[in-house]
Amino acid sequence: MKAVVLKKLGDFASLTDETVPDLKVTPDAILVKTHAVAVDPIDIKIGSGSRGGSAPMILGSSVAGEVIAVGRNVHDFKVGDRVAANVRGGETYAEEVLVPARLAAHIPDDVSYASAVSVVLGGQTGYSGIVRGLQVKAGQNVLVQGGAGSVGLMAVQTALDAGAKVSATAHGWGLDFLREKFPQVTAFDYKTDDITANGAIYDAVYDTVGSEKVLADSFAATKADGHVLSIVARSHRDPRFVHFFNQPTGATVQTLLDGLSSGRFMAVVDSELPLSADNVRLDYERLQNGGVHGKLVLTM
Ligand SMILES: NC(=O)c1ccc[n+]([C@@H]2O[C@H](COP(=O)([O-])OP(=O)(O)OC[C@H]3O[C@@H](n4cnc5c(N)ncnc54)[C@H](OP(=O)(O)O)[C@@H]3O)[C@@H](O)[C@H]2O)c1
């Protein structure tokens, strides 16, 4: 099968288009023929070598596609089903991907592969951080730092869905997007605005950025009994700090995909390019430079 292979850890110039051995399905997994993958920040972190591992390796964590084989213990999926999954470190930049069945969900007929794959990792983390991490309740004041990123956009939507009063930080395109699509959200420009300018003091802050400044500003704007959840910073001396690491499940992906179909949630795709080493490199540069307009998706 075709795959994009990273030959040398930490060197994205070494990404190449290769033919690698076909995969065989295992008892608790499904084999998926790839239609779309998302470019996730974790792929860049893994490829840079900051998470260990050794090259050559196939990067990629999100996949949407068609089931082409089913493991003998799997009963919820059949050949031909359209599915999506977050398979962290799952070697998804390839023509075929082995997906543990517990991580997969069915894509509703009216949801495209690109939309589906755009929410499985970042979106799942945004949703779960609000629902399980911060346990946001109706009427609470919630701030999402990085509200136009892939995690932040779903955190904003999930907090609104829970009935919270939502504020978010963004810049440029993201700021305009939040103001246009979610006029009920108080959107701050992270480069110029003061997040307490409207006198708000937050019950919960969802931090998707992790810098010292963003954390310090977040704690300064949070109630004494509130919480600042970060998916980037691992620890902080402030007792209101919570680190959140998303534990992917197919059930949560299903909630998001059904939400795309019903209109409960919105997917935002920046671009769809053919999956190739050149396009992975291009998207990594764009993601690292900031200012992308939604999820970067690569298709096959
Ligand atoms: N712990 C977990 O389970 C978990 C899961 C998923 C992701 N993550 C991590 O979470 C982070 C965010 O992921 P993502 O997929 O949402 O990335 P993303 O799509 O690149 O979004 C990041 C967003 O943060 C914005 N931003 C940058 N600097 C900011 C600042 N000072 N204040 C406010 N916003 C700022 C960016 O805006 P610009 O475009 O203007 O730069 C962008 O909209 C990554 O580090 C990722 O690895 C962790």
Automatic annotation (TrEMBL):
GO terms for molecular function: oxidoreductase activity. This is NADP-dependent oxidoreductase. Residues 10-298 form the Enoyl reductase (ER) domain. InterPro entries: ADH-like_N, ER, GroES-like_sf, Lipid_raft_assoc_Zn_ADH, NAD(P)-bd_dom_sf. It comes from the Bacteria. SUPFAM superfamilies: GroES-like, NAD(P)-binding Rossmann-fold domains.
